[in-house]
Amino acid sequence: MTHKPIHIIGGGLAGSEAAWQIAEAGVPVILHEMRPVRGTDAHQTEGLAELVCSNSFRSDDAETNAVGLLHAEMRLANSLIMAAGDANQVPAGGALAVDRDAFSEAVTRKLEAHPLITIVREEVSGLPPEEWDLAIVSTGPLTAPSLAEAIAEHTGADSLAFFDAIAPIVHFDTIDMNVAWFQSRYDKVGPGGTGKDYINCPMDKAQYDAFIAALMEGGKTEFKQWEGTPYFDGCLPIEVMAERGPETLRHGPMKPMGLTNAHNPTVKAYAVVQLRQDNALGTLYNMVGFQTKLKHGEQVRIFRTIPGLENAEFARLGGLHRNTYLNSPTLLDGTLQLKSRPGLRFAGQITGCEGYVESAAMGLLAGRFAAAERLGRVQPVPPQTTAFGALLGHITGGHITSDDEPGKRSFQPMNVNFGLFPPIEAPKSEGKRLRGKEKTVAKKRAMTARALADCRAWLGIEPVREAAE
Ligand SMILES: Cc1cc2nc3c(=O)[nH]c(=O)nc-3n(C[C@H](O)[C@H](O)[C@H](O)COP(=O)(O)OP(=O)(O)OC[C@H]3O[C@@H](n4cnc5c(N)ncnc54)[C@H](O)[C@@H]3O)c2cc1C
Predict the structure, then answer these.
(1) CA angle at residue 224 from 218 to 229, to 5 degrees?
(2) CA of 53 to the centre of ligand 1 (A)
(3) What ranges in 260-355 are assigned the alpha helix state H?
(4) What phi and psi, each to the nearest 5 degrees, are found at residue 382?
(5) Lowest-pLDDT choice from 46-50, 358-362, 372-376, 412-416
(6) How far apart are CA 163 and CA 366, in angstroms?
């Protein structure tokens, strides 16, 4: 039986993976890619799945690294991006890095050779026409302007961000709560709050002065040509604020007003760094107002001088770049489908994930959901204990909304990380509780073992049998 095709707009990491998954399920695909007819500010070639910057898929360690786990799940799910990556690997220690041209050529050849895939080199300048019924938009962070405008118009003007100022996110269990304390400013309960919604890190004058000096001196990343977007005053990088005067931050995001140090109530902090819960699980906290273009290494070095964050581990570091992404938790359902237009799905970085592998993973899921719909089957969503499910959950609803700043979107793009997974107890070793690094590693191993078992079950793959004793 022949099926009506599914249309995909954008043949990047996500669109290429989605096309492969749909075609492998036996459904025809028409893939619309605008290059070389029209280029972007970052792409250099006309190849599908071009890597625009680094050539790394990051860690390939599936036991103790979340992106390594995502690699493993994608391999289980017959991912084209992972197969082409594995076949074109270059030496990179524990990371999976690829020969970018050979990788892109391999993906392009596979898709061109597939009997169910047609590739059309054209720009789609508006929302997919209704007669396409099932379609996936995977046009990435540099979506061509006319399509971006059409999406913004359909979804509401504040639903598509074009400028992305991101603040670092910290793993809660690495914050020293013997120094920091929970309290909302003036104990304000607000709608949906408790009065203790923020984590506060206190600074005295000497610590504050040293911090401001470090911000001013710290190495900054240079803006690339395509990043020539002006700052909005509401999201100035902290180092730019510090340059406006040493007291600026103390009267802005670091103001100490309305806060009493629970560990030292009689001493008023000179400045306070606040962190706000970032995901529904409460495992991640973002540094409020701390968008920055300091280099990543500098962020780690300088932010670890903040009292309470000396051992902080960062789920994501801050940055400032152009990005186009939907307010997905509001707009998309659990299968990446636009609630206001059933049949139209989004995939890749435009959904609010970050990174090559994450983008491809969301293409894989969107492809599977769309193919199942065309075939009249039900494709359950992956369990939240898997890397697929954890990332999908973040995109389609795992974050919390910002009740205290109405109108401000709180959903921000993120790489896959262990903070997105439901917590798990660290196993004991010979009946004894583990501590420190051993405990962290044991927890990660337990999480990834749980994820791979659940991913196999979700995909209907036989569980791996332990070798007989
Ligand atoms: C400058 C830059 C550097 C980055 N560096 C890295 C990095 O080093 N490592 C990392 O992991 N991630 C990086 N990212 C983030 C992200 O992983 C990549 O952008 C990734 O390519 C996203 O995959 P995607 O499939 O969503 O989009 P893309 O891979 O960008 O694919 C989108 C495709 O859609 C096409 N397209 C756009 N509009 C239309 C239209 N209207 N009609 C038809 N086709 C259209 C584009 O030509 C493109 O081929 C970077 C992002 C940017 C912008």
Answers:
(1) 95
(2) 10
(3) 296-303, 328-331
(4) -65, 145
(5) 412-416
(6) 25
Residue found by looking up tokens 């360690």 in the block: 61
With 60 as the cut, is the pLDDT of residue 261 above it? yes
Sign of dihedral through CA atoms 67, 69, 73, 79? positive
Q: Cα separation of 452 and 95, whole Å? A: 19
pLDDT value of position 224:
53
Which residues are registered as beta bridge partners of 98? 89
User: Mean pLDDT over residues 50-60, rounded?
Assistant: 90
Residue, of 52 and 200, whose pLDDT is higher = 200
Pocket test for ligand 1, best of 71, 137, 359 (most atoms within 8 A of CB): 359
CA 268 to each of CA 40, 108, 205, 248: distance values in angstroms, whole numbers, following the listed order: 51, 61, 11, 19
How would DSSP label each residue in 1-63?
-----EEEE--SHHHHHHHHHHHHTT--EEEEE-TTTS--SS--SS-TT---S--EEEE--TT
Read off the pLDDT of residues 331-352 as tens digits, 9 standing for 90 and up: 999 999 999 999 999 999 999 9
Q: Which two structure tokens, joined as six digits, stand for 364?
A: 């894989």
**φ/ψ (deg, to 5) at 330:** -85, -40
State if residue 356 touches ligand 1 by the CB under 6 angstroms criterion.
yes
**Most ligand 1 atoms within 8 A of CB, residue of 34, 37, 52, 136 to mutate:** 52
Q: What is the CA radius of gyration of the chain?
A: 23
Residue 157 structure tokens: 């003007």
33 CB near ligand 1 (under 6 Å):
yes
Burial class (CB in 10 A: 0-12, 13-18, 19+), 154: middle
pLDDT band of 225, cuts 50, 70, 90 = very low
Contacts of 168 (CB under 8 A, 6+ apart): 286, 287, 290, 292, 299, 303, 314, 316, 317, 318
Supply the residue whose CA is at minimum distance from atom 30 of ligand 1: 140
- Report how far residue 14's alpha carbon sits from residue 348's, in angstroms, rounded to the nearest whole number: 5
DSSP string, 83-101: HHHHHTEE--TTEEEE-HH
Distance between Cα 34 and ligand 1 center (Å): 12
| Residue 235: per-residue pLDDT | 61
Determine whether the shortest distance from the Cβ of 10 to ligand 1 is under 6 A. yes
**Does the CB atom of residue 13 touch ligand 1 within 6 A?**
yes
